[in-house]
Known about the structure:
Order of helices and strands: EHEEEHEEE
Radius of gyration: 17 Å
Strand order of the largest sheet: 5-6-2-3-4-1-7
Oligomer: single chain
Structural class: mainly beta
Strand content: over 45%
CATH topology: Serine Protease, Human Cytomegalovirus Protease, Chain A
Number of helices: 2
CATH architecture: Alpha-Beta Barrel
Amino acid sequence: MYIWGTANPKGEGPGYNGLFLTGDDICGVVKDESLLGLPVKIEHKGVAVGKVVTAWESQGKLDILVDVDERILEGNIVSRFVRDSICRDFSLGYTVGMKFSDSAQTYTPTQKKFNEVSIVRSGAREQCHIHGYTARETKRAKKS
């Protein structure tokens, strides 16, 4: 099953110095393709049920297309959750490196590293919804 949706709302503007993604972060991750092949999980836990196929910027937001493997149990289950609108959102799993400034006595984010994308019931960030999906065609055995 292919699932399309928004993984991050519109990025924070110039001068933002926090943990959320900026507009520049979103453009950077699209340009360097660092999300491609990233594992897809359910609620940030368990085995990978698929991978990120592509990512793009849309009106300042980060949209993605993921491929969920319905041949494995967990992938089949989460596909049904998406079809039945039980899981409606995406959530990015990433870590943020921090640097301490002695002179300013503050921490500054230095690097955001993406670990996984999750399909979740309700994401922590607004507007990170699943917009659509398509099931793969299955090959049927020929009758003799």
